[in-house]
Amino acid sequence: MVKKMNEDFNVIQMILEQIIKESIHFFEGLESRAAAFQPPTLQRDKLPVEGIGAMNALENFKEKYAAFLSGSAGSRYLGFVTGGATPAAIAGDWLVSVYDQNVASTDDSVAGKVELETIDMLKELFQLPKNYSGSFVSGATMANFVGLAIARQWFGHQHGINVSQQGLFLLPKMKVVSGCAHSSIYKALSMLGMGRESVQSIPCLPDREAIDISRLREFLRELKGEPCIVVANAGTVNTVDFDNLREIVKLKDEYTFWLHVDAAFGGFAACSPKYHELVDGLDQADSITIDAHKWLNVPYDSAMQFTRHKDIQVEVFQNNAAYLGNSIDNPEFVHLTPENSRRFRALPAWFTLNAYGKVGYREIVERNVEMAQLLTKRVAESTFFRLAAPTRLNVVCFTLATEGITMDVIHKYLDLLKQDGRVFMTPTLYKGTPAIRAAFSNWRTDEDDVEIIWDALSEAIKDMDRK
Questions:
Q1: Phi-psi category of 411—alpha, beta or left, where left has phi over 0 and alpha has psi -120 to 50?
Q2: Cα 272 to the chain's mean position, in Å?
Q3: Is the pLDDT reported for residue 56 higher than 90?
Q4: Where does the signal peptide begin and end (predicted)?
Q5: What is the CA radius of gyration of the chain?
Q6: CATH number of the domain within which 256 lies
Q7: Is the domain of 191 the same as that of 274?
């Protein structure tokens, strides 16, 4: 087997040239590739005894699987909030695998220094103060996990308990307060032993997904000084609604709570002067989640966590091994996140930030919002669809203009749309109404795409009527 590996290494240039050829083939056909589809049932191969070598493995993959990969990197994949990787981000991501750095520390490679520099650039992009620290994690779920883990440790301190050493058993039940918490918050709370039921839902403003500040104030007052954790939203998934962060920050003058802001993609509003006021107050949060494989348009998996309490973060994640250095005096990444082994996630972000700068990301945000508004206008003028909510930023939330619409009908319609292949969207439930989400976050999406999207939407509704 080692012999076969050596043989492949001796022709690594040829192997990489074939990978480039396959990559170019994929990109050239991206706009005609189905945005998403249900792949066929395929027979699974067994593990080869001796192996077939890299070139044969590539040919095997192309023959069996390549045709069934979705066009999620393309301009009309509007499901979830998936950004397509920029050219520079792709270049950086390729090199991540080539360089194969384990960014656990900054002592044995410059890779760690690159991550620190990238975090500094991102703080500048999001207009966060220098006293914030940050690190890369795999996605928004893990960034929320880190932020809430630090919050849990802080909560313990308020009761004289070091949770990282003594556990949760001596603490009263924690209250996690939110108006419209994302599902990843509940998942993180489950993993942290705080429990999904620790979430105390505060009513939102009428016809909004933004927390009612007066009801939040009332809840905090009733705690009578008991500390809690407030999870605020900077961009909800259905309607990209924003909690009033500045008003929540003001409440910290009167009440004791940790403020975690889930700004997975809404944090990018800071890139544009047109929308920056939506995140006014973000720079006062205790911990922040922002996703990179969303609006930063870098490949999966990549996100950032930021905090103003690095010392508490180290208490939670320090890895007590002599060979890993002193976590108190000089905390390395291994002492800041759940991972001991960390791939060089910062490099694609470093590449794309350097390549396109502040102006490039302002343009991506503003263009995506403009495209969302174009689709919104079409929906508002249509007899087949109706808006379920106002379009506040880059997500259009709409539904079918049918009496007694059900989720089953929405799924059937989206299945037809997926079969068509020109666009992919996801279902949702907004204020009890089965609906559809169209999330614009790809740097390539333009007016021509919106026309194609609209044609696909209109034809699918006619097909549904015929059936």
A1: alpha
A2: 19
A3: yes
A4: none
A5: 24
A6: 3.40.640.10
A7: yes
- The answer to whether 437 and 417 have CB atoms below 8 angstroms apart is no
b/e sequence 245-265, b meaning 16+ C-beta within 10 Å:
beebbebeeebebbbbbbbbb
Rounded Cα–Cα distance for residues 375 and 466 (Å): 24
Helix and strand numbers (H, E) in the chain are 14, 11
Please indicate, yes or no, if residue 443 is contained in any of the structural domains. no
The Cα 33–Cα 28 span in angstroms is 10
Name the nearest CA neighbour of 441 among 22, 145, 79: 79
The domain in which residue 24 lies consists of 2-71
What is the distance between the alpha carbons of residues 164 and 9, in angstroms, rounded to a whole number?
Answer: 45
Judge whether residue 52 has pLDDT over 70: yes
285: DSSP letter: -
Write b or e for each residue in 61-88: b if 16 or more Cβ atoms lie within 10 A of its Cβ, otherwise e: eeeeeeeeebbbbbbbbbbebbbbbbeb
291 phi, psi to nearest 5 deg: -90, 145
**Entry field: residues in the chain:** 467
| Block residue for tokens 């009309």 | 76
C-alpha to C-alpha distance for 437 and 14, rounded to whole angstroms: 43
Which among 24, 40, 71 is the end of a domain?
71
Helices (H), 29-180: 54-64, 87-99, 111-126, 140-158, 163-166
Dihedrals phi, psi of 178, to nearest 5 degrees: -160, 155
Q: For residues 342 and 330, what is the distance between their CA atoms, to the nearest angstrom? A: 18
Q: Which of 378, 408, 394, 404 is nearest to 437 (CA)?
A: 394
Cα angle, residue 240 at apex, residues 276 and 363 outer, rounded to 5°: 45
Same domain, 127 and 65: no
Distance CA 43, CA 39 (A): 12
Phi, psi angles (nearest 5°) of residue 105: -145, 180
The contacts of residue 136 (CB under 8 Å, 6+ apart) are 115, 118, 119, 292, 302, 303, 304, 342, 345, 346, 349
Mean of per-residue pLDDT scores for the chain: 95
**34, 160: one domain:** no
Whole-model pTM over 0.85: yes
CA distance 163 to 174: 12
Q: What are the tens digits of pLDDT across the range 166-218? A: 999 999 999 999 999 999 999 999 999 999 999 999 999 999 999 999 999 99
Q: Looking at residue 108, what is its pLDDT? A: 87
Reported as a single tens digit per residue, the pLDDT across 356-398 is 999 999 999 999 999 999 999 999 999 999 999 999 999 999 9
Instruction: Copy the structure tokens of residue 363.
Output: 């343009």
